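Support request from a user on the community tier.

User writes: "When I paste my structure tokens into the form, the page sometimes reloads and wipes my input. The last time it worked, I copied everything first. Here is what I submitted, just in case something in the input itself triggers the reload:"
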């Protein structure tokens, strides 16, 4: 089950922006950065990788049940 009480709907606000990223060397590159917030709870995270975004959403969304087999 998700980390929060199951609700009938969830609303997320996602924002993306360009940001300078410093790598292991002194070189800097531009990269996407983002922030997602779950509106109902007010919780949010800042992320660089899409898997972080998806993991956050999965914490609120439970899988749909499989349809019955014939």
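"...and here is what came back when it finally went through:"
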């Amino acid at each position: 089950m998700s980390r929060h009480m199951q609700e009938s709907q969830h609303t997320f606000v996602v924002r993306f922006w360009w940001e300078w990223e410093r790598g292991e060397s002194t070189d800097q590159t531009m990269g996407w950065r983002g922030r997602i917030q779950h509106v109902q709870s007010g919780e949010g995270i800042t992320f660089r990788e899409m898997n972080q975004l998806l993991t956050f959403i999965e914490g609120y969304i439970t899988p749909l049940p499989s349809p019955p087999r014939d």
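Agent notes: The reload is a front-end session timeout and is unrelated to the input. The chain has a mean pLDDT of 86. Strands lie at 12-22, 28-38, 44-47. Escalated to web team.
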